[in-house]
What we know:
The structure is a single chain. By secondary structure, the chain is an alpha/beta fold. The chain has a single domain (2-253), classed as TIM Barrel (Alpha-Beta Barrel). It is 47% helix and 11% strand. It has a six-stranded parallel beta sheet, covered by helices on one side. The protein has a two-stranded parallel sheet with strand order 7-8. α2 runs parallel beside α3, α3 packs parallel to α4 (108-115) and α6 (171-179) packs across α8 (200-206). It is globular.
Amino acid sequence: MGILNVTPDSFSDGGHFQAPETALAHARSMLTDGADILDIGAESTRPGFRSVPADEEWARLEPIINRLAPEGVPISVDTTKAVVARKSLQAGARVINDVWGFQADPDMAFVVADGGASAVLMHNRHDCDDQLDLLADWRRFFDHSLNLAEKAGVKKDFLILDPGIGFGKTQDQNVQAVASLDILKQEYGLPVLLGLSRKSMFGYLLGRPVDERLAGTLAANLFGADAGADILRVHDVREHADALAMRQILKDCK
C-alpha cells in the first residue's frame, strides 16, 4: 500500500504532493514501483495535527480520486469522517482506512456497509499510558469496532485490522505492537495492515531523523511480513517491493 498524503502538514512528506498534478505523478510512480493499492490522506494524523473541515478534506481528495478511479486504480481513503468516506466511495474508492476504527463518527460503519467497501480498523488511544496492557486494550478496542461493524452490516471478510503504531502508545508499546502482530492475527483471524513507515519509533530506537528511517522501516516491515502482516503501508514502495521479492526468492530456495 503506497502512501499518498495530499496535506500540507503530514509528518514525513507534508506539502510535497499537495498540488493535484504532483500528487497524480507520485501516485503513478508508486504504482509503477509495485504498489497494489494507494492510500490517500487529506488530513494529517500526526501528533498535534490540525483537524480540517470535511469540505476542505474532500476538496483535496476529489481531483485525485476522480482521475485515478476511472483508470481502475485500487484506492483507499484515510479518513475518520463519514461524509468524506461516502463521497470517496461514490467517486470510486474501494477501502476506507479509519484510524479510529469506526469509533469516531457514528455513521462511518453504515457508510462502509452501504458502499459495499472494505475498511481498515486501526487501534487508537487519546493518551499514552505507561501501564497499559496493550494486548488487553487491543481486545477491548477491536471487539467494540467489530461489534459496530456487525451492527451496521459490514461483512467481516471485508475488514482489516491495524495495530496502530504511533497512535496513543509509548515507544516501547510501539515495539511491542510490532512484535505481537502474530497474536493479533491469531486472535481475530482477519487480515492485518502494518503502518510504521518512517515513524518516530525509529528516531527513538535508532536516533535517525525522518528522512533516514528507510533501513529501520524495511527491517521492521520484513519482520511484520513474517509475523503475518498482509498489507504494508509504506512511503518507499520500490524498496519494499525489492525487499519482499528477495525474501520470497530466498524462501523458495529452501
